[in-house]
Design goal:
The complex is a heterodimer of chains A (398) and B (321). With 398 residues, chain A is α/β, with parallel strands linked by helices. Chain A contains 10 helices and 14 strands. Chain A starts with a helix and ends in a 28-residue tail after the last strand. Residues 1-28 of chain A have low confidence and may be disordered. With 321 residues, chain B is mostly beta strands. Chain B contains 1 helix and 28 strands. In chain B, strand 20 (233-235) and strand 21 form a beta hairpin. Chain B is globular and about 50 Å long. The chains are: A alpha/beta (398), B mainly beta (321). At the A-B interface, helix 2, helix 8 and helix 9 of A face loops of B.
């Protein structure tokens, strides 16, 4: 018996040591957790204008999934773990109630994919005061100005940035007489306001302005309606259309009375992301996204990707999961986010808008990237787009 | 007496000229071709078809073979450096862009950007022998001259991964400035120089501690900081000077490798990307992506002597003595 028990004891000892080691190992690997919420509401499917583009119900969320994977690839080397929890409020659900109940106190960083009014509502909740919200959906200038909230950062370029990008390129082409066509919705009016602001800033003349009051049915009337509609007194270089829902803008091209290009919400568009964009490593993320999502990356996907990458970048650099430290770092000069558009991206300290290049894209070709060469700025040429510090009416105290 | 001296000088120049004869190979990303340049005459000799979307290029230590990553063919081609005929293919994985040869020339390390990994290829066996998981979008890669380390930079993770060549495993990671692009060791393997495209910086890492010992921010008068996007970096063998291609700033920075002062910015072609020395390190060649040429720099006088049109989107450069 004896000769057997001894090795057994030794074995037990060895096992014990191994057990201790494994505990130590796990302990060394203990990770700092960074919890991120993604908050959105189901959308009503709009009536189809044509059968070309299917309605995409999950714009944004797939971008957040790619970003969380990228953050965690980094995290495996830094001892940080990023956890993404997604909340989708049903169509008839109460956004405020669900935010209070579900997001509650568990998440200090929240990616918010909601329309402007709801975004403000959420930002004003007492429970959101100590959070940092990343707006990945709105393009409203007002949310960056008089309605700005100091707990919200805006990822997508606002309408003013887009209009300025278009104006810069038109200046370069010397197409500086515009015919502005505005749709019937409130959003169309806001886009038209941004276009007018850009025209004034860059010395472009809006020679005609008309509201589209015709039918939205292309098959029946576009051919004759548009030709008649675009017979205007003053000659113009380009037709600028403000139709954010895409109800009639697509029908204008090739049907105008005179041969003129169409820009704005259709034709040549200003956007933060586009499938034709391949430069600066963009082709890599286009491929990675398509592989994971099975479709092209949309603007909200790109915005959600950037929001979560911004959290990742700040957490890696500060080695922190404290929201105040993350926010301070994001708003500091040291923060530089890689956004596959050449320039490093950063947040404007005066309104929380992400400064970034704006792509000017035709359906199948990338035409230009704004800021266009020659538009200068003492700090960064990116601030030639949108509301620069002296123009901003946002008064947020950090 | 005088005459003899002049003649002697003349002879010397002639001999020096022949001794320096060398060939510069440039991959042309959009022409699917390789440009062959005589840098002494400053002339494009010829352009040969090479495969789809050629980017990274290296020459074997014995100067007999060129390795060219033809990205859209998903392979690295082995090209006879004399005849420029393809002699074989290496299994690089998808969309190869940058890669590095070890000093012995028998192993090749490839960055697989889309798969977040580095593939180790045995050149003799023409086989991938190991895949190493690294950060997101690995790009710049290099092997230390003492063959101890493979350093791989991941652009989106913003890290340099230190891979031990003996075990093919990551030993340490160094967090660096955003979007690290290219990296290179000094000849003594003691330092690793890393460029950050987004921060516009050059970081000097100490190989022993793996820490950043110096961070140099480039500033060029009349160029806004976001145009200064450092890419290619190389250091001369005496560690006197290093050179950094500044991308759309259209300049090459000359960095004193002892004091780390930026001595000079040399104006070259548009979107300067990659760099290579002449074998005697008296000249530097740059690929200029959007002006479709290469710049020839005389390092003794620190001046750009000539630019040679080569074709569309010159990307990588390798030099054969």
């Amino acid at each position: 018996m004896r000769p057997i028990t001894l090795p057994l004891q030794i074995t037990v000892k060895i096992l014990f040591v191994i057990h201790l080691l494994s505990v130590n190992f796990v302990h060394a690997e203990a990770k700092q957790i960074i919890n991120i919420a993604y908050f959105t509401q189901e959308q009503k499917i709009p009536p189809p204008l044509s059968n070309l583009d299917a309605f995409i119900p999950n714009k944004g969320v797939l971008g957040s999934e790619l970003a969380i994977d990228d953050n965690n690839t980094t995290g495996q080397f830094t001892g940080q773990k990023f956890v993404l929890k997604k909340f989708v409020v049903p169509l008839d659900g109460n956004v405020v109630d669900i935010f209070n109940k579900e997001v509650g106190n568990q998440f200090s960083t929240v990616v918010v994919n909601l329309p402007a009014e709801l975004t403000n509502k959420i930002a004003d909740l007492p429970i959101a005061k100590q959070k940092l919200l990343f707006d990945v959906a709105t393009v409203d200038d007002a949310l960056r100005n008089e309605q700005c909230r100091n707990n919200v950062l805006h990822i997508l370029p606002n309408r003013a940035m887009r209009a300025d990008a278009l104006a810069q390129y038109m200046m370069k082409k010397r197409w500086n007489k515009w015919f502005l066509v505005i749709g019937a919705t409130e959003e169309d009016r806001l886009f038209a306001d941004a276009i007018k602001r850009a025209a004034k800033r860059f010395g472009i003349k809006i020679v005609e302005e008309k509201t589209w009051e015709h039918t939205y049915d292309a098959r029946r009337t576009a051919q004759s309606d548009v030709a008649v509609f675009t017979q205007v007194d003053d000659d113009y270089d380009v037709l600028v259309v403000a139709d954010e829902q895409g109800q009639f803008g697509e029908y204008l091209e090739y049907r105008t009375w005179n041969a003129r290009p169409v820009i704005g919400t259709q034709g040549l568009v200003a956007t933060s992301w586009h499938r034709t964009h391949e430069q600066w490593g963009a082709v890599q993320i286009q491929n990675r996204f398509k592989e994971q999502a099975g479709r092209w990356m949309e603007e909200q996907d790109y915005a959600a990707y950037l929001a979560i990458r911004a959290i990742g970048e700040a957490a890696t650099r500060t080695k922190s999961n404290d929201v105040n430290q993350l926010k301070d770092y994001m708003l500091s000069d040291a923060f530089a986010l890689q956004g596959y558009k050449g320039n490093p991206l950063s947040f404007r300290s005066w309104d929380g808008q992400l400064r970034q290049p704006v792509l000017l894209a035709a359906p199948r070709s990338l035409v230009a990237v704004a800021p266009i060469e020659g538009f200068l700025h003492p700090q960064t040429e990116l601030d030639t787009l949108g509301y620069d510090q002296p123009e901003s009416t946002c008064k947020w105290s950090k | 007496m005088m005459k003899k001296n002049v003649l002697g000088l003349f002879l010397m120049v002639v001999t020096a000229g022949t001794a320096q004869a060398e060939t510069v190979f440039v991959t042309l990303e959009k022409d699917n071709a390789l440009a062959v340049v005589d840098p002494i005459d400053g002339k494009l000799i010829k352009t040969v078809e090479i495969g789809q979307r050629p980017r990274g290029i290296a020459i074997s230590p014995d100067n007999k073979f060129l390795y060219v990553a033809t990205s859209d063919d998903n392979t690295i081609k082995i090209i006879d450096a004399e005849t420029l005929k393809e002699t074989g293919k290496l299994p690089s994985g998808e969309d190869p862009e940058t890669f590095a040869l070890n000093p012995a020339g028998d192993k090749l390390y490839v960055s697989n950007e889309d798969d977040s990994q580095v593939t180790v290829i045995d050149i003799k066996l023409k086989k991938a022998v190991k895949q190493i998981k690294v950060g997101v979008e690995p790009e710049g890669i290099t092997v230390s001259p003492d063959n101890h380390w493979v350093a791989s930079a991941s652009e989106t993770t913003n890290m340099v991964h230190w891979i031990d060549t003996k075990t093919n495993a990551i030993v340490e990671n160094t967090l660096v400035d955003p979007r690290p692009r290219a990296l290179n060791f000094t000849a003594d393997s003691q330092q690793l120089w890393v460029t950050s495209e987004m921060a516009g910086t050059l970081m000097i890492l100490d190989t022993k501690t793996k820490q950043i010992i110096k961070n140099i921010k480039f500033e060029v008068q009349g160029v806004t900081s976001d145009k200064i996007q450092p890419v290619g970096v190389i250091i001369d063998k005496d560690r006197k000077r290093g050179y950094v291609a500044l991308g759309p700033a259209n300049r090459v920075a000359v960095v004193n490798a002892q004091t780390f002062e930026v001595e000079k910015y040399l104006l070259v072609g548009q979107r300067v990307w990659n760099l290579a020395f002449s074998p005697d390190q008296k000249r530097l060649y740059t690929t200029n992506g959007t002006s479709n040429d290469i710049s020839l720099i005389d390092l003794e006088t620190q001046t750009v002597t000539k630019s040679v049109g080569v074709g569309t989107y010159p990307w990588g450069v390798a030099v054969k003595p």
